[in-house]
């Protein structure tokens, strides 16, 4: 699922000679993480508005003189720290962080690709205490206007004497064959403390040095605020995903409400299918090195970017040529309002050109979080044209304080019935389209989405359309123009609808 680019593939695991040095670096990083997570002033200073803390770079260099060497010229330091209590036990959290497949699934909005190159130690029998692994990952913002950040690092997990678990990453760029390093991870990671009733207290530290000159102007403020790649985004994502997992396990679903899926197997299958849809959407929307976007003419930020891919022998995707198109733009409306407008089936006909003005009805839904915006739903489009009546839309909407998504895909009625009866969701062909809604980073309070009337939104609109069901066919200019036109019209409709609500 996570297709590694040639760059990721060209990186081999470390040589035998390098291993003792890697372990020494990781052990020092673990000590640094502990101090970074626990120290207050003068290392961490309150921000001007008092809502967050900021790292004093001078104090950092004084406190941690060794580390991975001085900051490269032209790089910027991004450091942040965030604490939260999440609904998951510490053992499961450690497992999510140490198993690359679980990690990249839970954080699919931030991690576009990841792989473990080599496990240097699996840790003590039965748990990850003392485990070391060399990894490579690509971090993203869901927009083609923000370059992804590739990182080659060692991850080390340790349980401390007081019972606290910690997982730390530190870059191994000096061992790396590639001369182009745009992002270095200084010791970053999290401390996990066990709490009563299966909860955990997580303290997250993100500390990177990055060349961010490729970030488009409209995203600069968001990236600088730390909401794009910083600790707050990781913790908000983790918190939301823990709620999602808890609701997937729930057995006490109230019956009687129309459309609520109560069968445990049906819920599990539908959530698994929706999860795959979200991962596929997120992996296909960023400016990853794994795929090349072609820019169609447009006006600066409003450019539409397109790419094609051939889909062959993948049971989870329809066969043929798939055209992806995406664009990102700013809206003078708070993210919450944009999110509520896009996820509501009653306003869908205002922007969804492909539903042809048909009435959209919610047939079924699964709530998966405290916020009513976090849910998976099955929609039916009752189009005036009766030949399309066998089409359903699977939609997942999710929101937290740093990002919101509305992601959907047309699904076949027969396949969906199978899933609702607990069938294997991996064989349902999906082509997800949808929206990523981010704060623009201008609010005084760090751009929390829940605050009404705060800041504007950065909206990414992305479509995937099967333009030919024969994988060997040539892409026609006509189909590119059609998709370009589809995006342009959708964007215009959304702008008109939310700005008139705003008036």
UniProtKB/TrEMBL annotation:
Main location: nucleus
A Gene Ontology molecular function term of the record: lipid binding
Location of the protein in the cell: Nucleus
Annotated InterPro entries: HD-Zip_IV (IPR042160), HD-Zip_IV_C (IPR057993), START-like_dom_sf (IPR023393), START_lipid-bd_dom (IPR002913)
Alphabetized SUPFAM superfamilies for the sequence: Bet v1-like
A cellular component annotation (GO) from this entry: nucleus
Domain named START: residues: 15-247
Top-level taxonomic group: Eukaryota
Keywords, ordered alphabetically: Coiled coil, DNA-binding, Homeobox, Nucleus, Transcription, Transcription regulation
Alphabetical list of CDD domains matching this protein: START_ArGLABRA2_like (cd08875)
Acyltransferase keyword on record: no
Pfam families: PDF2_C (PF25797), START (PF01852)
PANTHER family (alphabetical): HOMEOBOX-LEUCINE ZIPPER PROTEIN HDG2-RELATED, HOMEOBOX-LEUCINE ZIPPER PROTEIN MERISTEM L1
Similarity-based family: Belongs to the HD-ZIP homeobox family. Class IV subfamily.
Name used for this protein in its record: START domain-containing protein
Lineage of source species: Eukaryota, Viridiplantae, Streptophyta, Embryophyta, Tracheophyta
């Amino acid at each position: 699922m996570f297709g590694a680019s040639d760059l990721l593939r060209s990186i081999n695991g470390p040589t035998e000679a390098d291993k003792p040095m890697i372990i020494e670096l990781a052990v020092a990083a673990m000590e640094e993480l502990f101090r970074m997570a626990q120290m207050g002033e003068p290392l961490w200073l309150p921000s001007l508005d008092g809502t967050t803390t900021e790292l004093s770079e001078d104090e950092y260099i004084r406190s941690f003189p060794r580390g991975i060497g001085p900051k490269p010229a032209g790089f910027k330091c991004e450091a942040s720290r965030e604490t939260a209590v999440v609904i998951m036990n510490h053992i499961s959290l450690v497992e999510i962080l140490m198993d690359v497949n679980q990690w990249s699934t839970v954080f699919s909005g931030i991690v576009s690709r990841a792989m473990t190159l080599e496990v240097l130690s699996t840790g003590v029998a039965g748990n990850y205490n003392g485990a070391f692994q060399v990894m490579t990952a690509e971090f993203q913002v869901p927009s083609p206007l923000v370059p992804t950040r590739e990182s080659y690092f060692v991850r080390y997990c340790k349980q401390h004497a007081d019972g606290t678990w910690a997982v730390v990453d530190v870059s191994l760029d000096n061992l790396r064959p590639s001369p182009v390093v745009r992002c270095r991870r200084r010791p970053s990671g999290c401390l996990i403390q066990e709490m009563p009733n299966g909860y955990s207290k997580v303290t997250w530290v993100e500390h990177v040095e990055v060349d961010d000159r490729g970030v488009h102007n409209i995203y600069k403020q968001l990236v600088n605020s730390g909401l794009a790649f910083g600790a707050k985004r990781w913790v908000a994502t983790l918190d939301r995903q823990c709620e999602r997992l808890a609701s997937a396990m729930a057995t006490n679903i109230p019956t009687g409400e129309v459309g609520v899926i109560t069968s445990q197997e049906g819920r599990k299958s539908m959530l698994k299918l929706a999860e795959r849809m979200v991962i596929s959407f997120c992996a296909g929307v960023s400016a990853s090195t794994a795929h090349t976007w072609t820019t169609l003419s447009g006006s600066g930020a409003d450019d539409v970017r397109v790419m094609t891919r051939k889909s062959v022998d993948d049971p989870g995707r329809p066969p043929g040529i798939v055209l992806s198109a995406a664009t990102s733009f700013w809206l003078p409306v708070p993210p919450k309002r944009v999110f509520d407008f896009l996820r509501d089936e009653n306003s869908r006909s205002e922007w969804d050109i492909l539903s042809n003005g048909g009435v959209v009805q919610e047939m079924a839904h699964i709530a998966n979080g405290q916020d009513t915006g976090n849910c998976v739903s099955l929609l039916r489009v009752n189009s005036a044209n009766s030949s399309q009546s066998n089409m359903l839309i699977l939609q997942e909407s999710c929101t937290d304080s740093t990002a919101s998504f509305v992601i959907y895909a047309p699904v076949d009625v027969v396949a969906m019935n199978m899933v609702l009866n607990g069938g294997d969701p991996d064989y349902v062909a999906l082509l997800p389209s949808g929206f990523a809604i981010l704060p623009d980073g201008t609010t005084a309070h760090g751009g929390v989405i829940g605050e009404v009337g705060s800041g504007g939104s950065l909206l990414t609109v992305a479509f995937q359309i099967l333009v030919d069901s024969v994988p060997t066919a040539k892409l026609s200019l006509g189909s590119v123009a059609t998709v370009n036109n589809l995006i342009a019209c959708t964007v215009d409709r959304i702008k008109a609808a939310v700005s008139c609500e705003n008036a």
